[in-house]
Each structure stands twice: as structure tokens, then as C-alpha cells.
């Protein structure tokens, strides 16, 4: 009845070969007179979702998370992960080879400074590190006289005998009815930001796809084409991309406003620009140090700064916002159908984490507009729900019984990208669960209702979502919210709601609102909607004020809510939200789902 076409549940994690692979890597490093190797989970664009041939960290360590960093020395090795993966990482790696460490407690540079011998030579691949990353390592290692050595070829690639080929997904045009702005208008904006620089080197495929109104199929779940671009102050931009990704029609459309060159031509073009003494801008977050140094060594002046495309891409235009709202209505209907089905099927037994994920994807596909899921569905029951970025596999798959089920999922539609999390209980909710769930919900409502002046960043709002957990001595180890693209990445910067986000929030930005709580070994709770930053008119206001429009539509599990812990304003918000969900989605679902929805969104 149900099937998954956009995700696999195969067991991709394997640390069985880590010992042999690490031993082979160490032998290769010795040939280069190196004492160690830096290994990030990264490709040449610092993508979150990387092509299969760039999964070097997983190949060596067995760790399959979306963020990680390994340091391999001659006698010891460490894997660094953030709070999302502190439970997952030790389960996937060989603890005899790698020590798993929380990057919040110790950074790779700190660990290396403490464990490498004085004067050690540590190798790295300059295509998968940024200038800032290497500069931070160099500063931390300076006192120990540890040298960082770039290699022209990554030694892991030579050892990885069955390494997948470079991706060659087709590039398609993203039409104005979805983009809302022409490529010419976007290029004009970017040129205005160059100021006294001669050109911009674009290394973020998301920014390139946004600027040129194209989409690709080179990585899972995010419609980007892996490519680089050069945008001069005058003249046509150059897109460096594999010609195999372009059909005749797309090539002709692009050649009307840019030049097409193969990717390998970029370093030569930067060398020529350097010889002319040009000043080029590089994106600090994504530009490989190899490109920056290529220009510098040729006599040019690299200027490493924030990508000028980052902010305009984040501030969605009216067409993109309308598309996001429409996508969320369709997506909300699919998710509500799933939740109604789950409420009936789960108590009967027989469901597993995988069958639930397959069902949700099927409901979304039945919309007829689904292009892909926006990330692998987190379908987690019981103790697995306490792992924030749990990925169900055939090996880990749990049967769903009485207890907590968390589903974090999203979809890619031509008019918008979605991301939503709901936590439900099968059976009765304990007093403890209702307490924890309601505290998370209160944090979610606090963000949804927040009003703040222009210039406020996500860091200033982060505590709104944590206050009620803190009052009970609880917290969670991930940010409250991330930016979301427009039929692009489900995780988009520079905007975030987190303790470290300094980017001011501006109208048109889309963010997630997803506080959580995770009780290791028992259950996890996360409640996520997407919101749009909007202007707020307040009588007598002395400053320009902003707030959030919630665009995700799906009911929260009222069985888990403890009204006695909520204020009147919080209950009013929840009732109004559920009334909106019921009114908007009822015409889009079948009769049995409507009956369930009426009860699921009843006023409390």
C-alpha cells in the first residue's frame, strides 16, 4: 500500500572496515611525511547534503550524520560532532579507533594542539576547507609549531576503490512564476554589492541556482547543481559546470546572459585574474581555500567576506512567499491525512518506524506536486525519538507500540520547501510526558507570538523558546530555528534562531520554530512549524516592529497537552491556530480525516 521512492532505509553505516581503512590512510600519510590528516564532512562547496563521492568521513569512520569532523594522527583519532549526534556517533563508529567528542566541549583544533607532537606536519585537502577554517587551525597550532600541509590530491580518494563518480544531474530552468524575479534583476543586485572589487567568485551552489534561476539534481533532497560561477562588475557572468548537465534548450537559455565553461577552467581563469592584479570577492562560508590561494599566488587580491547573495536569497519576494504558503497548505493536508491514519493504525500494532515513514511519503506523493522530500524523514519511536537527527534503517527499525512517536519531515515542491515536526503519543500520556510536552509547546508559542524591533537577531529570541524548560532544569542542544529556502535547501542561512546567530531578522525571511526536549533512552519531543518574518503595526510604537506569520498547518497532539500549565494567552493562541488548521485543511481531506481533524483541533 505504501512505499518510499525518495528515501532508502538501507543500513549505510558500517565501521567494520574502519581499522583497515585508517591503517591504509596512515600508511599513505607516511609516504607524504605527514603525522596526521584533517577530515571534515564536506565537499568543495561546504554543502550540508554532499554527493556520494564526497562522503569520505562516512567511508572512513562509519558515521553518517550531516555534520562531523575527524582528526587522524599516527596513534590516535577523534571524531567531533555537535549536540544532535552525541548519541548517534558512538553507536556508529568503532570506539577502538575513534574517540567521539562533543565539539561544544573541545574543538578539533584544541584537541590537535594537545595530542599532536610539537612540530608535527598535518595534511589537509584545500578543496574541502575554507580559508577561515585553516586560519583558525593555524592560530591554535602556532605555539606548538605544528605545520598544516595542503595536498593536491586527497589520499582517501586513492584508497576508496569503489568511490562513486561525480554526479551529473540535469539542470533545469526555475521559471518566473516560482522565482518571482528575473536572473537579470538578481545579477544587477549582486553587482551593486561588488563596490571596488572586480568580480565575485560564487562557490555556493544554492546562491548560484538562486541568482541564475536554475535548479539541479546533484545531491539528495536539495535541487542544486554543483558548480561555480564568476560574476564580473561588467560583462557576462561565467558558469563553471559540467556540460553533460545541460540539454540543448537549457544551454541556449543560459547562454543568452552568461558564458559556460567546464569546472576545471576556474583555477586557470583565477590565475589570469591574479596576473592582472584583480580584486575578487570570495564567500567566507563556502569558498575552498584552494581557490583563494590560487588568486593570491598569481598576484591577485582575494577578499574573503560574506556572500553578497546570501541575504537577498534569504529575503523572499512576494511570489516566493505566496508559493510557500500554498505549498504548506497542500503539505499540511498530506501530513494531516497521515496523522489521522496513524491515530487509527498505531494502536492496532503492526506499524514500524519504516512503514510510518513510507506512509507519510505516500500521502505527500498523492498531492501530485511532490518533487522530492526535503531531507530523510526522521521517523522515531520511543528511545529513538531522543536522538534529534535519528535516521531509521532496516537494522534500527523499531515496532511502534505504546509510547512517544516523533516524525520530522519535509517536502520539496516547485513553489516551496517544507519542514514540520509533530510528536504524538500512542496510548495514554504520563504526567511527566504532558509536563515536558507542554513546556516545549509553551516555548513554541512564545516564538510564534514574539514581537520584536527591527535589528533583532535570532540570538536574542532563542531564550524565548527555552524559558519554560529552564524553569524545570531542562534544555535541548540544538538551535530553535533555521532558515529555509524557496525550492532550495531546507537549511538556509544566514538567518537562524540560535544562541550564536547575529544576523538581524528581516521581513520575508522564512525560519523554523522547533524547540524540543530529549530524555535519553526514553523519548524525545520536538514541535516544529515554519514562520515568515513580517512587519507588525503597533499603536504608539516608537520603532519598526516585526513578528512571525506561522505557515505550517497541522494539529498538535492535545492528548499530550496539560492546560493547567498554560496561560490564557497561550491557550487562546493554540485554539486559534487549531481553528485555522481545521478551516483551511478540512476541504482538502476525506470525510474520515475531517472527523478526526475536528476532534484533533477541538478548543481546550
From TrEMBL:
Every copy of the Peptidase M24 domain together lies at 324-534
Tell me where in this chain the Creatinase N-terminal domain is found. 21-153
- Record-annotated Peptidase M24 C-terminal domain positions: 544-604
What is the top-level taxon of the source organism?
Bacteria
An example of a Pfam family matching this protein is Peptidase_M24_C
Q: Where is it found, in Gene Ontology cellular component terms?
A: cytoplasm
For this UniProt record, the keywords arranged alphabetically read as follows: Aminopeptidase, Hydrolase, Metal-binding, Protease
Q: Which family does it belong to?
A: Belongs to the peptidase M24B family.
What's the name of the protein?
Answer: Aminopeptidase
